[in-house]
Design a protein that fits this description.
- The chain has helices at residues 9-23, 30-61.
- By secondary structure, it is mainly alpha-helical.
- It has a domain at 9-23 and 30-53.
- Helix 1 runs antiparallel to helix 2.
- The protein is flat.
């Protein structure tokens, strides 16, 4: 049986950031701009989720 390691949250954010950086190396067309916006939205969602987790931990520890 083959085990596939899924990236953790930090790795996912790094992967998304690298995708965005790779996309930004070329002059973006309309389709690529939409893809870049989707990646930015994914990154923002990860950051919001992490922020909520940190805030919950801080409030719970206070």
């Amino acid at each position: 049986m083959t085990v596939i390691n899924m990236p953790n949250k930090e790795d996912q954010v790094i992967i998304l950031a690298h995708r965005l950086a790779d996309m930004s190396l070329e002059e973006p067309g309309p389709r690529q701009r939409m893809q870049m916006l989707e990646v930015i939205e994914e990154l923002a969602a990860h950051l919001v989720q992490e922020s909520r987790l940190v805030n919950a931990a801080l409030e719970g520890g206070a």
